[in-house]
Please model this.
Amino acid sequence: MASIRTIQVGQYIEIKKIAQIYGNNSAMQFLTTHTNSPYGSYPKEEDPNRILTKGMKVQVIGKGKSQTKYRESYITVIDNRKNTFDVMSSDLRKFFK
Model:
């Protein structure tokens, strides 16, 4: 199971459920749930370039400590489409194997 302590820079990790990249500027792009639910925290992304499907692999390119960019620690990843985004430590087990 993925956790912030065991993941290393350069490692590839696999998405286990559909997700999306959310954020309006290049400095704050992060992974969220891709859902139609009216109770979702973020609007559903329609751009297929920003949607990650089950089985897709992303490469870890960095790690960040809590209280630097976000309230919690995070990893920065890049996908095969050259999208760079952050994944919060609390979302690692939710979205990755």
About this structure: The longest strand covers residues 57-64.
